[in-house]
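$ fold --in a.seq
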Amino acid sequence: MTPEINLLQHIHQGSVMGIDSIRHMISLSDDSAFTSALTSQLREYEDVKAEAASLLTRAGQTPQGISVTAKLMSDMTSSLKSMTDRSASRLAEIMVQGSTMGTTNLTKQLNAYHGHDRSVTSLAQKLLKTEEKNIEEMKKFL
């Protein structure tokens, strides 16, 4: 697998994880302002996912999602963490933790990337900026 394909798959999987996590948090939230913020974030992740999928398809690759196990673990973890407190503050805290993990993982992937395709690095930077922006936005609800 080329460095570009590897990073694109990671971007695609990271955006899928973000989409799934946000949808799950929306289902737990009863705060309209928080839900609105999440809905805006959802669109950003969907844009990154679509762009990664397009680049992968053009390269003759099939975009890979996250495993069923990873999705179930993520949903279970956020459900357990919010079991006794489903306030916007608690849900925002969970989102900050998830986005921080996403930022860390993507930064590692970018540092390990030795390819030269600017469209791939640009998309990775877009996802990284999205994660960072989302962390700042969620802080408003803490």
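$ fold --in b.seq
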Amino acid sequence: MPTTFLRFLSYLLHPIFMPTYLFGGLFFFTNAFIEYAATIRWSLWGFLFLGTCGFPVLTIFALLKSKAISSLEMTQHKERRLPFILVAIFYTAVTFLVARGVFAETLLAYLLIAITQTVCVAAIINIFYKLSMHSVGVAGALGILFALQLCDSRYDLFFPILLCVLLVGVVLSTRLALQAHSSEEVLVGATTGLSVGFGGIWWLLG
């Protein structure tokens, strides 16, 4: 498979986009948030996109411009520590705003808590070990969907879970094909994402 296409997949399925994909799927293609009006769902999606993707991406580009990192791929382990800690801080701030506001103790807040837990645990591990954040992101989404379905079968998440399983295979294979990570780093990332994402939702809703 051409390297250019593999890199395209890596960017398309970058972990920074996973919360946006996850919430978009749950908002508009499942009944998990059917009680919210469409205008509210779109507004929430925009807010979550800015907090979990937009501002973190701008921060990473600022780090690139200031030469704190040498490339967006951040191939060197030491370059990955600060960006992922900053991303974890952004996620924590967004979660704090949502979980203590009008959406306190709702599914939206619980999802954000589980996502932020996953990001923070991965950022801490990354200080000491170069795990695959791509694997963390996609496997974390899968773990969250699994836990949601087990906690309440009314969500009917069979097809989202099936799609996510396929994406896990694509992401892990792509990272290995690009030689961006060793098989161990990919496995550690996937295990971290799956276990923390699943555990977070199970703890909050189970």
